[in-house]
Structures are given as structure tokens and as C-alpha cells.
Automatic annotation (TrEMBL):
Species per Swiss-Prot/TrEMBL record: Hungatella hathewayi
InterPro entries with a match to the protein in the record: Cycloisomerase_2 (IPR050282), Haem_d1_sf (IPR011048), Lactonase_7-beta_prop (IPR019405), WD40/YVTN_repeat-like_dom_sf (IPR015943)
SUPFAM superfamilies named in the record: C-terminal (heme d1) domain of cytochrome cd1-nitrite reductase
Family of the protein in this entry: Belongs to the cycloisomerase 2 family.
GO cellular component, one term: cytosol
Stored Pfam families: Lactonase
Protein name: Lactonase family protein
GO MF annotations in UniProt: 6-phosphogluconolactonase activity
Listed PANTHER family: 6-PHOSPHOGLUCONOLACTONASE, 6-PHOSPHOGLUCONOLACTONASE-RELATED
């Protein structure tokens, strides 16, 4: 039996109060837990990097980021800093820095990891209520999708994060999250408001060539509230692309052929409001968090077709909106 620890980020509510830990059996797909792991209200997005868990946090009316060492049985806080007026919606980290995107402030904060904690390295303003929703890196270019500005802002890290252009979209598109292939030649992006998949050819530096745009949802179908897409993940073997859509409560699967994407499945997410999901490293399972109903679920994936087959396990996870999985223990 191969057991992995997983972690859930949540919106603060009467039923949720921070980061939750669960166990996942990678042989059977069975989930156990979750249990409260660390009190961090509004831990809306998690980043797990070499055993270090970074998360937004709200405490005593202040917002910021915390860094937790997960190596032991109990969490160990290694740093926290409060430099934001509201909790960030996205966090990513590397060896030296933690980066947060703050949707409501319209700011990107870069925190430096120090031996004694965390310090603020730089603040980048993207515009009030720009809706910045993710941070990606393409070589030395930092990319920030700004949902409410209908563009991805590009910053040159070698010039102290100076602006280096943008990728623009039609009004009302709402670019949300993107993912690169390992070769950094293909860039896939999902839009929240128009529910579309954008496929780009990525060049060196800030050069991107749009190859195709596909609608995720059936023409003429209307949901109330309106359907809004969320997460996008590439399978480890890069043969399949997965996307989630809230209110429609769907997981959509594409088969990839170079710069072409063929929709092969659209199926229920196992609950209501699938904000995030992950693909296991062996491509055998998909784990999704449904914020309102259905909780954390695991689906078995067909290794040949990439499609979701059976629902293997379900556990309650109120207000869960982010999921990460550690390597087997």
C-alpha cells in the first residue's frame, strides 16, 4: 500500500478553519480524513515545495502568507508575514521566494525566504481590482493572468520585474489559469468568464502565438448561476489536458496532438463547485475538491484514454478550494 499525505486549502467558515490534511492510498484511490492540520483562516491556495507548505493566512485582521515545514508528524511554522489587506488567491514558491497573487488588491507580492522567517522583497501593482489570479514563469518572464483586465501581464525578472508586454483577450474573456508543457513550447490557458481553452505556441522570452481557441461548454446551454471555469492541469505524460467548470460542475478532458486539442470527455465533478483538482504522478487518479457539496473525491483514470472512469472515494471537505499531494511516505 502506497500512502500519500495531501493538504486542502479552504475558505474560512463555521465549518473550516485553515489547512486540512488527508491520506490517499495510491493503489486503491481511497481517501481517509481530512483533519485540521494548521489553523490558517482563508488558506485559499496551497503551494507544496520540497516539504514546505506555503499558504495565505488571515490573523487578527491582517492578511499575509505563512510557511510550514511538513516533515514531522505535526506542522512547524518557519515563517509568517502580514503585508496584505486581504488573503491572496494564489501562492507559488521556489528555493528563494514565495509569490502571491491578490485578486482584490490587484497586487503581486514577492516574499524572500530567510533563515529566520520571511521578509517582503517586492510589491508589484497590476491595477485595482485587476483580478490577478495566478503567477507562472516562462524562463525569466513572470506571467500574471488578470481576469478582470482581460490580459496576461508579463514581467522581466532580469530587469527587476519591469513590465515586458502583455497577452490580450477580448473583453469579457477573464483569463484565469494556465499551464506549460515540460518543453515550454505549448501554453494552455482556461478563461473563467467565457469558458474557453486557449492554446499558444511559446517562443523565447515574451513571445506567444495563438494557435487555437475552443469553447468548453455546449452552445446554447445556460446555467444559473452562470458557469465559470477554474482549474487546468496537464497529465504527467502530456497526452491529456483536464479542466474544471463551476456551476456546470464538470470536468472536461482533451486529448492532445501537438498544437491540437480534441475534447474526448465531459463528466460530472462528483459534487458542486469544483474549484481545484490534481492528477496523481502516475496518471492513475484525479482528485477534485468541490467547495459546496460533494467534498474531496477521487476518480480513477483510464491509462489509455485519459478518461475519468469510476468514482473511488469521497470524504467531506467543507469550503475546500485547493488541493496538493505529497510524495508517497
Amino acid at each position: 500500500m502506497q500512502v500519500q499525505n495531501g493538504y486542502l486549502g479552504t475558505y474560512f467558515s463555521a465549518q473550516s478553519d485553515g489547512i486540512y490534511r488527508f491520506q490517499f492510498d495510491s493503489d486503491t484511490g481511497i481517501i481517509t480524513g481530512p483533519e485540521l492540520y494548521y489553523t490558517a483562516p482563508d488558506s485559499k491556495y496551497l503551494s507544496l515545495y520540497h516539504g514546505q507548505l506555503a499558504s495565505p493566512i488571515v490573523k487578527d485582521g491582517k492578511a499575509g502568507v505563512c510557511l510550514i515545514d511538513t516533515a514531522g508528524e505535526r506542522p512547524r511554522l518557519t515563517g509568517e508575514l502580514f503585508e496584505e489587506t486581504g488573503s491572496a488567491c494564489y501562492v507559488i514558491q521556489d528555493d528563494a521566494f514565495i509569490y502571491t497573487a491578490n485578486y482584490h488588491e490587484g497586487s503581486i507580492l514577492i516574499y524572500r525566504k530567510e533563515p529566520g522567517g520571511i521578509t517582503l522583497y517586492k510589491r508589484i501593482e497590476t491595477g485595482y481590482k485587476a483580478g490577478c489570479h495566478q503567477i507562472l514563469f516562462h524562463g525569466r518572464i513572470m506571467m500574471v493572468p488578470c481576469l478582470l483586465r482581460d490580459r496576461i501581464l508579463l514581467f522581466d525578472m532580469d530587469r527587476d520585474f519591469a513590465e515586458a508586454g502583455s497577452i490580450t483577450f477580448p473583453k469579457g474573456t477573464g483569463p484565469r489559469h494556465g499551464v506549460f508543457d515540460q518543453a515550454r513550447k505549448r501554453f494552455f490557458l482556461v478563461s473563467e468568464l467565457s469558458n474557453e481553452l486557449f492554446l499558444y505556441e511559446a517562443g523565447d522570452g515574451p513571445q506567444f502565438t495563438l494557435k487555437s481557441v475552443q469553447k468548453l461548454l455546449p452552445e446554447g446551454r445556460v446555467w444559473s448561476p452562470a458557469a465559470i471555469s477554474a482549474a487546468i492541469r496537464l497529465s504527467p505524460d502530456e497526452r491529456f489536458l483536464y479542466l474544471s467548470t463551476r456551476h456546470a460542475d464538470l470536468i472536461t478532458v482533451y486529448r492532445l496532438h501537438g498544437f491540437e486539442a480534441e475534447m474526448i470527455q465531459q463528466t460530472e465533478s462528483g459534487g458542486s463547485y469544483p474549484r481545484d483538482f490534481i492528477i496523481t504522478g502516475d496518471s492513475k487518479f484525479l482528485l477534485a475538491v468541490n467547495r459546496y457539496e460533494g467534498g474531496l473525491v477521487s476518480f480513477r483514470l483510464d491509462p489509455d484514454t485519459g478518461m475519468l472512469t469510476e468514482l473511488c472515494s469521497r470524504v467531506p471537505a467543507p469550503e475546500a478550494v485547493s488541493v496538493v499531494l505529497a510524495p508517497p511516505v
